[in-house]
């Protein structure tokens, strides 16, 4: 019996999980739940996640929420390759970032996206951008200080969870990689080592971004 991963690819953690499933060729269906159409509020969806959030994983009658828990469930069920390493220390370095990202890359990048795209005027953008820049300084000075990827010398889920959050802020036309050559070359490496799946999963974001920027001009 194959599992089903319910996602909206406009959601950052959903994209990271979709890349994980695709790069590891896991026998897991990826099914879209369109948040903009309220498909996450139907009784059927709420029976899987009463909080009405994506991603959700369904494996027969078993339902699981929270992207990091889903990642670990899929890894345990199917076993994964280099994206979530098996060796104790390599995995611990990926986990270190996965713990950190909730209150850093996710929190600060999402705030800028919400304030610029979803709820303009509701958030102090200058403050949000300052907070995001402090977070980016930490990514560069700690996680990317002396290695090519967040958790070592090969791409891992840590990079995908980070990049998916950062790219969300580019929908408004903001280029947070400008003036940050270290971050830009890391993004280029992550994308190169994760394609074609990376661009495939981001194709919705790319087209929303094109439309958003065109309408703004
Ligand atoms: N901590 C959760 C976050 C899930 C989450 O916030 N999902 C958002 C999309 S990024 C959502 O479904 N929002 C819809 C809503 O709140 O109505 C995870 O990592 O899975």
From TrEMBL:
A GO molecular-function annotation: glutathione transferase activity
PROSITE patterns: GST_CTER (PS50405), GST_NTER (PS50404)
Domain GST N-terminal: 1-82
InterPro entries: Glutathione-S-Trfase_C-like, Glutathione-S-Trfase_C_sf, Glutathione_S-Trfase, Glutathione_S-Trfase_N, GST_C, GST_C_Theta, GST_N_Theta, GST_Theta
Main localization, broad class: cytoplasm
Catalytic activity: RX + glutathione = an S-substituted glutathione + a halide anion + H(+)
Statement: the UniProt record of this protein carries the keyword Transferase: yes
Taxonomy, superkingdom: Eukaryota
GO cellular component: cytoplasm
Sequence ranges assigned to domain GST C-terminal in this UniProt record: 87-217
Compartments where located: Cytoplasm
GO biological process per UniProt: glutathione metabolic process
Pfam families linked: GST_C, GST_N
Keywords assigned by UniProt, alphabetized: Cytoplasm, Transferase
Family: Belongs to the GST superfamily. Theta family.
Protein's UniProt name: Glutathione S-transferase theta-1-like
Taxonomic placement: Eukaryota, Metazoa, Chordata, Tunicata, Ascidiacea
């Amino acid at each position: 019996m194959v599992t089903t991963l319910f996602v909206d690819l406009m959601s950052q953690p959903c994209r990271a999980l979709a890349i994980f499933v695709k790069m590891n060729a896991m026998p897991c269906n990826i099914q879209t739940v369109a948040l903009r159409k309220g498909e996450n509020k139907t009784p059927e969806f709420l029976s899987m996640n009463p909080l009405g959030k994506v991603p959700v994983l369904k494996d027969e009658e078993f339902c699981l929420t929270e992207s990091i828990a889903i990642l670990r469930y899929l890894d345990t069920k199917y076993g994964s390759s280099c994206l979530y390493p098996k060796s104790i220390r390599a995995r611990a370095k990926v986990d270190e970032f996965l713990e950190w990202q909730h209150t850093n890359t996710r929190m600060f990048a999402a705030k800028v996206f919400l304030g610029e795209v979803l709820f303009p005027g509701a958030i102090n953008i200058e403050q949000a951008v300052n907070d995001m820049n402090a977070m980016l300084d930490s990514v560069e000075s700690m996680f990317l200080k002396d290695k090519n990827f967040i958790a070592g010398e090969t791409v891992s889920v840590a990079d995908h969870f980070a990049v998916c959050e950062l790219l969300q802020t580019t929908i408004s036309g903001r280029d947070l990689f400008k003036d940050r050559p270290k971050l830009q070359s890391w993004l280029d490496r992550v994308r190169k080592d994760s394609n074609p799946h990376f661009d495939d999963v981001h194709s919705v974001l790319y087209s929303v971004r094109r439309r958003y920027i065109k309408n703004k001009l």
